Amino acid sequence: MNNNNSSLSHRKEEPENGILYIVGTPIGNLNDISQRALNILQNVSLVACEDTRQTKKIMNKFNISNKLISFNKHNSLIKTPKIVKDLKEGKSIALVSDAGMPGICDPGEDIARSLKYEGIDMICVPGACAAITALVSSGLPSSSFIFEGFLPKKQSDRNKTLHEISKNKKTTIIYESPHRLKKLLQELSVFCGGDREIMVARELTKRFEEHIGHKIDDAIDFFKDKEITGEITVILKGIDKKMSIFNESDLRKDLKELMNAGLSLSAASKYLAKKNGLKKGFIYNLIKRQI
After folding, report:
1. Distance between CA atoms of 262 and 136, rounded to whole angstroms?
2. Which of the given ranges, 75-79, 162-166, 188-192, 234-238, has the highest pLDDT on average?
3. 59, 66 Cβ separation under 8 angstroms
4. CA angle 37–39–43, rounded 5-degree value
5. Residue 46 and residue 37: Cα distance in Å, rounded?
6. Distance from CA of residue 226 to its chain's centroid?
7. Buried b / exposed e across 155-192, counting CB within 10 Å, b at 16+?
8. Where are the alpha helices (DSSP H) in 168-231?
9. Confidence tier at 193 by pLDDT (50, 70, 90)
10. Minimal CA–CA distance to 286: which of 158, 168, 184, 193?
11. pLDDT tens column, 226-238
């Protein structure tokens, strides 16, 4: 068993026995893989892959041959004890996801926690990450940010998360599947306002990479009549200080309460506009904007 408190500054030649190497792999362009990652994949005892078919594409391109085993969300509970046993017996293992850094929105997070509990050493071999790649190319504030990953599917949980995102002062990073992107953009428009700055990154590092923005409503218009494919990363600017007193979800709730109390839509809109320093037309149209 390795001592997690031991210094890593005098490591032997890699890969070492009894170590799990968490290896970052390309998110699109296979040439983004590092020489260190190739060395690890070639020389560890075995490679644990999210999908062996995807990992074989890298192995074949760089003429690497090694034992591959499947390790994903469907079998991680079964496979983790075997990986722990192999590491304790002195084997070296590389963990890779289909693309990017293992542990970010995949079962790599769970095995890392298990190995830490067991006192087994892990070393990260850095590589591409869609979240950071999109963030630094977005032009939005990147020194401080919040990573949300994939939002909850259950609508009540999703609305709660969207409400929290709408109030974030820091840039938010969201992953989304292509068939859910249009719904997400509509939701963000409702909760954050259509004028909030955004960048939708599609097919990062690939031939048809796209960066779509500048505002949420611009992105909605861009994708309106398009069939969306590819991996999606959304970068959303945090709320401005001058805008932090409201969001659309709160305003819509206030508007409905005033109307239920007997005010006309026009009168309620006028009241809320004056209260929040907004245009009456903006408030008036909230009643028409539904998810």
Report:
1. 49
2. 234-238
3. yes
4. 120
5. 14
6. 23
7. eeebbeebeebbebeebbbbbbeeeebbebbbbbbbbb
8. 181-192, 216-223
9. confident
10. 193
11. 999 999 999 999 9
Q: Measured between alpha carbons, how far is residue 124 from residues 96, 109, 112, 242 in Å?
A: 11, 12, 11, 41
Cα–Cα distance between 170 and 162 in angstroms, integer?
14
Instruction: State the amino acid at position 269 in one-letter form.
Output: S
Task: Tally Cβ neighbours within 10 Å of residue 24.
Answer: 24
Give the span between the Cα atoms of 250 and 159, in whole angstroms. 12
Residue labelled with tokens 């790599």: 108
> What are the CA-CA distances from residue 197 to residues 4, 146, 212 (Å)?
43, 15, 11
Residue reference for tokens 């309460």: 257
The whole-model pTM stands at 0.80
User: Is residue 69 within 8 Å of residue 46, measured between CB atoms?
Assistant: yes
Would you give the DSSP letter of residue 271? Answer: H
Q: Are strands 210-212 and 198-202 parallel, antiparallel or unpaired?
A: antiparallel
